[in-house]
């Protein structure tokens, strides 16, 4: 499976490499290396999230169109609640790995693959987006 290469990457703010990645950095990396799509890095958004402030996650999801959970396919982006010390914010994301699984990362775990239709991810899932390039 393509996603095996990305499991276990340590979390790194503003990271977008196999050696360390943030949630959007991981999405960016997988989209580029696996699906051949070029997305912006959005460092300004990560700076706001890292500061513990709430942000509008629309810059991340402006690159896709919403699809139903039942229509999710490999490479789609999962939009999720972030759970942090300042509470819950709609600023987390991951990549659909197929068969009901999402690849995502956090400071606590690094990158992992988990089912998105069961706890703990199912309660965090806000939507699925299919990347469209200009």
Q: What sort of overall outline do the alpha carbons produce when their principal axes are compared? A: globular
Strand content: 35-45%
Taking pLDDT < 50 over at least 5 consecutive residues as the criterion, the unreliable ranges are: none
- Radius of gyration of CA atoms, rounded to a whole number: 13 Å
Average predicted local confidence, pLDDT: 86
The biggest beta sheet is recorded as: 6 strands, antiparallel
Strand order of the largest sheet: 3-8-4-5-6-7
Number of strands: 8
The CATH first-level class comes to Alpha Beta
Question: Termini distance?
Answer: 28 Å
Give the count of helical stretches.
3
Total tally of structural domains: 1
As a percent range, the share of helical residues equals 10-25%
Describe this structure in words.
This protein has three helices and eight strands; from the N terminus they run E-E-H-H-H-E-E-E-E-E-E. It is an alpha+beta fold. It has a single domain (about 1-130), classed as Alpha-Beta Complex (endopeptidase fold (from Nostoc punctiforme)), CATH 3.90.1720. The radius of gyration is 13 Å and the shape is globular. The mean pLDDT is about 85.
């Amino acid at each position: 499976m393509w996603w095996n290469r990305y499991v276990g990457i340590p979390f790194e703010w503003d990271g977008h490499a196999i050696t360390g990645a943030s949630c959007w950095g991981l999405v960016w990396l997988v989209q580029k290396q696996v699906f051949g799509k070029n997305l912006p890095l959005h460092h300004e958004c990560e700076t706001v999230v890292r500061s513990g402030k709430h942000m509008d996650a629309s810059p991340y999801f402006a690159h896709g169109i919403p699809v139903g959970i039942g229509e999710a396919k490999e490479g789609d982006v999962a939009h999720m609640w972030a759970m942090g010390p300042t509470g819950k914010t709609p600023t987390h994301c991951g990549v659909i790995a197929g068969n009901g699984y999402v690849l995502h990362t956090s400071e606590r775990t690094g990158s992992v693959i988990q089912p998105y239709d069961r706890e703990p991810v199912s309660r965090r899932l806000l939507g699925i987006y299919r990347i469209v390039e200009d």
